């Protein structure tokens, strides 16, 4: 669990960090006005990695936001801005400024993809397994604290870590940040429900079997639903006796809401429509696509635009991360 600091079966169509996860805010009911009447301000929804943290604000994917009075949520619980760290994947909602004024974040939410003991590592392949979830590392992954010097080579089976990142089309978590955690840290995993069995009170998240017979369940469980599962600091890499299961809401944005989404292209049915970690994106003749962008599956991109009446992010700019 983050400490206070000073200073589809493969989940192709899911919200990440996301995901995600994470990572997940119901910004406002569809059909609500995107702007604040009479103010000239416009609502926004942003998802991306933290690029700076200061006393009065944060930057996400390079965009600064004022955080005076901001509500912060960490892994589903009330938190503090001091718990946000570089390369955490977060969701931010608020209102854009006018003129020279800075955008104001009303809410910032961080939800780690998985927290638990490592079961296996593959240093040459750049991956390891935590609670049945495959974590992939690359040159952009930030290893924090005691992991910083040795990176993946310093992670051993049994070590407890928390991973933040985006999922690719193979269902792997492409880690943006990996933190070492205390051995007695509670366990947490987010993902899509698979093979729900309401008789035996079990489901799977990838290869992990979740037993929710004694869990407090919030929301309606169904195959494909995105959930956050909590469990005490015990269990195995193959099964988990959950204490809480929370069904996560999908993204809903009013028409005209500004969207700034960083993530991985997880679906690409045409050259004018794709999905970034489950968020639908359309491009047209007015969209500026940077020359270095490759619109292919598993490409990491940053998209800015406005959500339309169907919840599609109509892009005005697509950049490579």
Total helix count?
1
The CATH topology of the domain at 114-180 comes to OB fold (Dihydrolipoamide Acetyltransferase, E2P)
Sheet with the most strands?
5 strands, mixed, barrel
Gyration radius (Cα, Å) is 19 Å
Strand order of the largest sheet: 22-23-24-27-26
Helical/strand content category = mainly beta
Termini separation comes to 28 Å
pLDDT < 50 stretches: 4-33
Please explain how this structure is put together.
The protein is globular, with a radius of gyration of 19 Å. Among the domains are: 114-180, Copper binding periplasmic protein CusF (OB fold (Dihydrolipoamide Acetyltransferase, E2P), Beta Barrel), CATH 2.40.50; 187-247, OB fold (Dihydrolipoamide Acetyltransferase, E2P) (Beta Barrel), CATH 2.40.50. The longest helix has 4 residues, at 18-21. With 321 residues, the chain is an all-beta fold. It has a five-stranded mixed beta barrel. A five-stranded mixed β-barrel has the order 8-9-10-13-12. A four-stranded mixed sheet has the order 15-16-17-20, with no helix packed on it. It has one helix at residues 18-21; strands at 43-53, 57-60, 63-66, 71-74, 77-78, 89-95, 104-110, 114-122, 127-130, 133-136, 142-143, 160-167, 173-180, 187-192, 194-197, 202-205, 208-211, 216-218, 226-231, 239-241, 244-247, 258-270, 273-276, 279-282, 288-289, 300-307, 313-320.
List its salient traits.
OB fold (Dihydrolipoamide Acetyltransferase, E2P); five-stranded mixed beta barrel; single chain; 46% strand; 321 residues; 1 helix; mainly beta
């Amino acid at each position: 669990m983050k400490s206070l600091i000073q200073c589809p079966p493969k989940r192709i169509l899911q919200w990440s960090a996301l995901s995600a996860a994470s990572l997940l805010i119901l910004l406002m009911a569809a059909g609500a006005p995107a702007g604040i009447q009479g103010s000239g301000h416009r609502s926004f929804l942003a998802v991306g990695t933290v690029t700076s943290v200061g006393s009065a604000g944060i930057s996400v994917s390079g965009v600064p936001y004022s955080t005076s009075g901001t509500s912060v949520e960490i892994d589903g619980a009330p938190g503090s801005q001091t718990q946000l760290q570089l390369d955490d994947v977060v969701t931010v909602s608020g209102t854009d400024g006018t003129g020279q004024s800075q955008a104001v974040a009303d809410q910032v939410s961080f939800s780690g993809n998985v927290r638990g003991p490592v079961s296996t590592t593959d240093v040459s392949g750049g991956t390891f397994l935590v609670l049945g979830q495959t974590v992939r590392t690359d040159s952009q992954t930030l290893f924090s604290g005691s992991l910083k010097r040795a990176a993946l080579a310093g992670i051993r089976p049994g070590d407890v870590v928390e991973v933040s990142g985006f999922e690719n089309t193979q269902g792997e978590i492409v880690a943006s940040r990996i933190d070492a955690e205390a051995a007695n840290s509670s366990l947490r995993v987010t993902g899509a429900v698979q093979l729900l069995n309401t008789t035996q009170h079990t489901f799977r998240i990838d290869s992990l079997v979740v037993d929710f017979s004694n869990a407090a369940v919030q929301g309606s469980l169904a195959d494909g639903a995105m959930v956050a599962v909590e469990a005490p600091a015990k269990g195995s890499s193959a099964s988990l006796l959950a204490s809480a299961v929370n069904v996560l809401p999908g993204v809903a944005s009013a028409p005209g809401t500004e969207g700034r989404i960083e993530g991985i292209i997880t679906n690409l049915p045409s050259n004018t429509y794709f999905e970034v970690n489950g968020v639908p994106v359309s491009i047209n003749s007015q969209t500026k696509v940077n020359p270095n962008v490759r619109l292919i599956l598993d490409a990491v991109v940053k998209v800015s635009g406005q959500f339309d009446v169907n919840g599609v992010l109509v892009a005005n700019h697509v950049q490579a991360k």
